Amino acid sequence: MSSQINQALPTTRRGFLQLGLMGTATLALGSAVATLTGCTTQLEQGGEYKFLQPNDREFFAALIPAVLNKSFPGELSHDAAMKRTLLALDDLIYTLQYHNRIQMRQLFDALSMAPIRLAAGASWASWKDMSPKQIDDFLVGWRDSSLQMKRMGYVSLSKLIGISWYSQPESFVTTGYPGPPTKIPTPVTPKAKNISAENS
Amino acid sequence: MAEKNFEEVRGITDPILEGISNGWITLDAGEYTENTTLEADVVIIGTGAGGGTTAEILAKAGLKVLLIEEGPLKSTNDFKMDERQAYKDLYQENAGRMNKDGSMSILQGRCVGGTTVINWTSSFRTPEQTLQYWGDNFGTKGVSKDEMAPWFDKMEERLNIAPWAVPANENNAVLSRGADALEIPWKVIPRNVAGCWNLGFCGTGCPTNAKQSMLVTTIPSAMDEGSQLLYSARAERLIMDNNKVTGIEVTALDKGYRPTGVQLTVKATTVVLSAGGINGPAMMLRSEAPDPKGLIGKRTFFHPTTFSFASFEKEINPYYGAPQSIYSDHFQWNSVDGPVGYKLEVPPLHPGLTSVLLMGHGEAQFDELNKLPNLSSMIALLRDGFNDDSVGGSIELADDGSAIIDYPINDYLWEGVKRTHLTMAELQFAAGAKAVRAAHTEAKWETSWEASKAAIDKLSYSASKALVGSAHVMGGLPMGEDLDKCLVDSNGKYHYLDNLYVIDGSIFPTSIGANPQLSIYGMACRLATGLAEKLTA
């Protein structure tokens, strides 16, 4: 399990930790705390998620309906669609290479801390307690920000959520995509010489 | 209501599984439980356009070849036209690869067969202007248009490359119709396919074996000659002794692309690096390979690619049919080394990828995706690397040794990005679009070319506002005889190591100015043929 912990710990102050430096000295302190503690929740051991921790999942659970709007939950129940999207997100982020994975870790950690969240343009309230309007305001604020770091955060989060959901067949009904043809694989047949070899 | 173009795909054999059942030597590095040493005459790192082509030529010359591939071995029976499965199995970083500042998305293959398994089959010879520019500026020798022609002839025959003879799908027809209306010349794209069903799923691994990727052509041919294929194996670093490479340290990977803890060593008398313009330079940096001028990983190029969306009254069904069949080079060569030129093409729009390209959220994005059957897109591929302000990106190493692609989009490129948005919007309206939106977070849907033009003029161009992507990776280990600029000689040999050859897109001193696969095939055919002659002399 040590590899799971290693890949979840931030090892650098670059990137999204700068979010904490955009505010007051208090927030800079908050950023330092985030750096030192790695993240604000206990890391799960051996769960079904390889990267996303409970706090991260709470964050995404708030964002997913806001990003996907009426396409969510498609043909699935709300809970099933949420689980499917979270697992797809987890798999995708886990497969990112080190630099981008660390950027994501820092982003999630920073946004899980109320003071940094507030400085970054979101609500002091925890993600699960925010209204849809508050979440949309946060997304629009980041999208239209003059800071490249926030715009990158917006684009990353919306892209990750979009591809994780719209690739699911149960979302096709919301796009009008009729879906791919059904592939019927052909079983492997040993070549003639092998058959004759067996027979001889 | 849109309907499926085919209900099912059946009756297709799987040449890889057949080959394995007939005794091919395929080795899953993830299954090794202890450190092991493997040996060959030639080890080839990478199995894409460069490595695949090289493997067939060397194996047929009688050399004992071992191919190393970082990705998994997937084949026809695995290709189910499912975006989820394809991105996870066949793409670098689950199709989420980005440059350092997140301003560009990069689609690149990671599987046996490399990007040739997931590309959209467009096959262009290296433009004459590009070859000329290399000769003039980098001292490449033996790669003029006439000298390269026989190698392109050979690979076009090998991979059945010919202009697409079937009418373009509606998505591509938008480009030809708009171009006709504006009296802009366009052409039909040559494709590497044999018996193509016109399904539209080149990007998720060809389900019918029609695409003549390395996976169904040169690799099976090399395997039939007794080559060995080691997959789920990352070439970590070269083992060097003075000016010779004596072997390669290889990290075995599990199904989640994490090291299993087992290290393999591959010993060979000759090493060919065919790992592409990101992972190749990164491996050379990890190896601390000799590089007196500090050139490794500099001048890595994409074709930074911009997008424009159009909606039509009639159904476009942009996910079906040959994904790319029409192009225009009208804006490509007005000046070789002046303001950036660009090639116009069309991308397929499957829903997962499209949600990424639309770069939005909430109700506005839902309204766009909700009309996917009526959506069309055009792309412009910027030709980077032909101007002093056009220096591409550079490869750095992260703390764990993996590649970071530092590729900022500078003002030279932004000026071009804006021009491409104007060009594409004009073409889309000329083709009958009822509304057009540049792929830019500030852009709204506009209903006339005049309104669109005025709106694009007001957009601000900076990172993570305009969508920029790339599916083409080139450069990083440039070829030429000018030692101040180049790392690899005109025969593909690394200038500073006696038995290391680089045969892939990383040796291109600039971007190509066209989808690069045939440029890689032709160059690889030339270099590998020369290498085979040398090694068997």
Q: Your description of this structure?
A:
- The complex is a heterodimer of chains A (200) and B (537).
- Chain A has nine helices and one strand; from the N terminus they run ααααααααβα.
- Chain A has helices at residues 2-8, 25-37, 54-68, 78-95, 98-111, 114-119, 132-143, 148-166, 192-199; one strand spanning 182-183.
- By secondary structure, chain B is of the alpha/beta class.
- Helices cover 28% and strands 20% of the residues of chain B.
- Chain B has 13 helices and 23 strands.
- In chain B, the strands form seven sheets. In chain B, strands 2, 3, 4, 9, 10, 11, 12 and 23 form an eight-stranded mixed β-sheet that branches. Chain B has a four-stranded antiparallel β-sheet with strand order 16-17-14-20.
- In chain B, helix 5 (145-158) packs across helix 13 (517-536) and helix 6 (170-181) crosses helix 11 (411-430).
- Chain B is globular.
- The chains are: A mainly alpha (200), B alpha/beta (537).
- At the A-B interface, helix 3, helix 4, helix 5, helix 7 and helix 8 of A face strand 1, helix 1, helix 3, helix 9 and helix 10 of B.
- Strand 1 (182-183) of chain A pairs parallel with strand 1 of chain B, so a sheet runs across the interface.
